[in-house]
Write a structure and sequence with these properties.
Elements: H1 41-60, E1 61-69, E2 81-84, E3 87-97, E4 104-111, E5 123-127, E6 130-131, E7 136-137, H2 141-144, E8 147-151, E9 163-165, E10 179-186, E11 197-200, E12 203-212, E13 220-227, E14 239-242, E15 246-251, E16 254-259, H3 262-267, E17 270-273, E18 289-293, H4 296-301, E19 308-314, E20 326-329, E21 332-345, E22 350-359, H5 375-384, E23 388-395, E24 400-406, E25 417-419, E26 422-424, H6 431-447, H7 451-469, H8 472-531, H9 536-564, H10 568-571
Parallel strand pairs: 1-9, 2-8, 10-18, 11-17, 14-18, 19-26, 20-24
Antiparallel strand pairs: 1-4, 2-3, 3-4, 5-8, 6-7, 10-13, 11-12, 12-13, 14-17, 15-16, 19-22, 20-21, 21-22, 23-24, 25-26
């Protein structure tokens, strides 16, 4: 602190007294002020806070990582955060283009807490609003802005890493979500894609993670994730099928529409089920491989182990018949078509369609439980009883066809032959092709009818009829018929006039007839009383008839006696043994 200068003293006033004393100024004393000034408190506090913040920042500061993305959409240096479960783990410090301008390089300063999770199993992606057929996500970023989501790996043996390639889409499964991943193989995926749901008994239990295209013509591998605890229902015998879209069937009961869910219609889906005989087997291991069938009927048919091959040959149209079409008997599916091929014979200039089918005997129930007979013998017995293979339409809406094993009336004799491991069954026309052929035959027969000659004859007949109608003889006949009708009408009027009095007397005649019938009834009663079974006349008549019977008997005895003894007419009857 600096010294203080005493204030100057004013000049003394002139004294009126003689010989005044000289003025002596007072002596200045300097005092030093000790202690701490309050002015320094604020800078010191600011310095302490700054030091604490610097220490905290440096102590929490983690490593810097580099993430590459296809686009920097939604990212801002100094503002965009890296998060995991809504907890900040880092901040974007810089964004720049790559040297070839094909992608962007994002520098991120991570926190010290995130350092243990920066391994080769970690994944990063930008969370932004996404709208697709499978899901809707990132709507919260409409107000707060986009951010980078981090999914740390759970592998304890993972290696540390600071450079990453960001995901363009969110992963279907997080590392901390319990469940199991399986691999499905199929020839085509249809509308399946990342995020498509996986169903078990119409319940969403997982989703499709993605697929890998084969290098050649091999099957496509589809990776699916099934969440716990539903993953334990996936066994070695579990069957998966494509549940995309909807199924429409038109039958006798009407139109039947079946779909898993609206989401499956829009984005596709996979469903699975486990047969009863496989539910006691152990659960499938992670990354186990299964076949993805086209639909549920195909998946159910895969459960039949025994298959018998047969071959059919058709010389009619097989449009609508394809691989997988059903083989039916009496409308019940017993197998499916495995191949359809056109064969051409250039020597004989003929063509035919070869259809290979498989029959699953497990779909049939043999009477008595005996199915040990040879398939060829059984087929020949059925053919001997009239069985023939034909084509039938199962959907007039789509034109789909099926192979039908029917028993037509009185077919010509046929034999079952062998072609390699398959048996060849006799065929007959059918389906729309058979109908078309029959209609063509009918049209040909109609075309052979001589319509021109018939028309000429009809014209001649009409001309003759016209001449007859206009002839004078017909006119005279019509005039005579008109006169006859007039005479008949007069006769009817006269008859009506004559019958009218008789009709008026009918009630009186009816009354007289009723009286006559009553008198006749009384007469019959009187006759019955006088001559009936209980009357005196009846009893006398009965005695008379008895006496007449006795007289006739006496006459018959007399005649017999005279026949034996004619001399009695002269000598009379004597008491000798001769009359006996």
């Amino acid at each position: 602190m600096s010294d203080q200068t005493p204030p100057s003293q004013p000049d003394p006033p002139p004294s009126s007294q003689p010989n005044p004393r000289p003025y002596t100024p007072p002596e200045a004393h300097v005092r030093r002020k000790s202690g701490f000034s309050l002015v320094w408190i604020l800078p010191i506090v600011a310095a302490v806070i700054g030091g604490y913040l610097a220490f905290t920042t440096l102590s929490r500061r983690g490593p810097e990582i580099v993430i590459t993305f296809q686009s920097a959409e939604g990212l801002t240096a100094g503002q965009t955060r890296v998060r995991h479960k809504a907890v900040d783990l880092g901040t974007v410090t810089g964004i720049r283009l790559s040297s070839d301008m094909s992608h962007v390089i994002v520098h991120v300063r991570m926190t010290r807490e995130a350092d243990p999770y920066l391994t080769d199993k970690a994944r990063f992606w930008v969370v932004r609003p996404r709208l697709s057929a499978s899901n809707i996500s990132g709507l919260e970023t409409l107000l707060s802005g986009g951010y980078i989501e981090m999914d740390p790996g759970t592998d304890k043996d993972a290696k540390s890493q600071t450079e990453y390639t960001g995901l363009e889409n969110p992963p279907g499964v997080r590392s901390d979500e319990p469940g199991t991943t399986f691999k499905l193989t199929t020839a085509r995926i249809g509308s399946l894609g990342s995020g498509s749901p996986v169903f078990y008994r119409d319940i969403t239990v997982g989703e499709v993670l993605g697929y890998q295209l084969p290098e050649g013509n091999g099957p496509i591998d589809v990776n699916v994730f099934v969440r716990a605890p539903y993953d334990k229902w996936v066994r070695s015998g579990t069957r998966f099928w494509n549940a995309s879209g909807l199924s429409v069937e038109l039958g006798g009961s009407g139109v039947h529409v079946e779909l898993e869910s609206i989401q499956a219609v829009l984005s596709g889906g996979v469903a699975f089920s486990t047969p009863e005989d496989s539910r006691e087997t152990p659960s499938a291991a992670s990354d186990a491989s299964f076949r993805l069938y086209d639909d549920e009927p195909a998946a159910n048919a895969a459960g039949y182990k025994e298959r018998l091959p047969f071959v059919l040959y058709f010389q009619t149209s097989t449009a609508g018949l394809s691989v997988g079409s059903p083989v039916q008997m009496y409308g019940i599916t017993i197998g499916n078509v495995t191949n359809v091929r056109l064969e051409l014979d250039p020597v004989n200039a003929t063509a035919r369609v070869r259809v290979a089918i498989e029959v699953q005997p497990e779909r049939l129930s043999a009477i008595g439980g005996n199915r040990s007979d040879n398939a060829g013998l059984v087929a020949q017995r059925l053919v001997d009883h009239g069985m023939r293979a034909g084509l039938s339409t199962i959907s007039y809406l789509t034109g789909s066809m099926a192979v039908s094993l029917d028993f037509p009336q009185s077919p010509p004799p046929a034999k079952v032959t062998r072609e390699g491991d398959a048996y060849v069954l006799p065929t007959q026309g059918g389906g729309l092709g058979g109908i078309t052929t029959a209609l063509s035959d009918i049209a040909n027969k109609i075309g052979q009818i001589p319509f021109a000659a018939i028309g000429a004859n009809a014209n001649g007949a009409l001309a003759a009829i016209n001449g007859l109608v206009g002839s004078p003889e017909l006119k005279n006949a019509v005039a005579g018929l008109a006169g006859t009708l007039q005479d008949v009408q007069g006769l009817v009027r006269r008859t009506d006039a004559g019958l009218s009095p008789l009709m008026r007397r009918l009630p009186e005649v009816s009354s007289d007839l009723q009286s006559t019938i009553a008198r006749a009834n009384r007469l019959v009663g009187s006759v019955d009383a006088g001559y009936g079974a209980n009357s005196q006349f009846s009893r006398d008549l009965e005695r008379l008839m008895s006496q007449l019977n006795d007289g006739v008997r006496s006459i018959r005895l007399l005649a017999d006696f005279l026949d034996r003894h004619p001399e009695a007419l002269i000598r009379g009857r004597t008491n000798t043994g001769a009359d006996r």
